[in-house]
Amino acid sequence: MNQSVNRTPFEILARYERLSLAHASDTQDKLEAPGLWRGIGFRVGSRLLVSGIDEINELLAVPTLTPVPGTQPWLLGVANVRGNLVPVVDFARFLFGERTQHSDRTRLLIVRQGNGSVALLVDEVFGQRTVDEEQRRDAGREDDPRLTRFVENRVGEQQLAIFSMHRLVRAPDFRQAAA
Predict the structure, then answer these.
(1) What is the helix (H) or strand (E) element at residue 136, kind and residue range?
(2) pLDDT (tens digit, 9 = 90+) per residue, 50-59?
(3) Which of 53, 55, 41 is nearest to 160 (CA)?
(4) pTM of whole model > 0.85?
C-alpha cells in the first residue's frame, strides 16, 4: 500500500523539507571539505582566471555606463548599482592593453575596494570552480609578466590562473584612475 496516499499535504511538505535539508547539509559538508579552495572562474581576453569566492561580491550583466572625463582609458565610467555609483574597469584593457569585446556573455565582477566597490568588465564568467590539494601540489607558476604580481599559480587541466583581487585593489596603478 502506498503510504503517500494516506498523508496530508502538510505531512508531504514536511517530508520534502526534511529531505531537502538533509541534502543541503550533505552538500555543505562536501563544499567545506578540508583542502578544497573555491573560486569563481572567468575569462579576460584569451586568459582563464579564477578568484576566491570570498573576493567577488557579485556578478552582474553590464548596465548603462556614464563616462567620466579625465580618467585612464581602462576606466569605462561609473554604473548605478542599486543606488551606489561604482567605477567600471575594462579588465582586459587594464591588464593587457586590449579592449573587451562586448557580447551577451560579458559580465561585471563586483569587488570590494576600500569602503566601496569596483566593477571589472570580463568577457565571460564560468561559475564556481574548486581546487583540491593535488591540483595545488601540481600547480604551475605564472609566466606572463603582466599577471605575475596578481597571480602565483595556475591550476587544473585548463591552467586557470589564481588571480588575487586583494592584490589588484591595492596596486598603485589600479588605484590611480586619473589620466
Answers:
(1) helix 133-137
(2) 999 999 999 9
(3) 41
(4) no
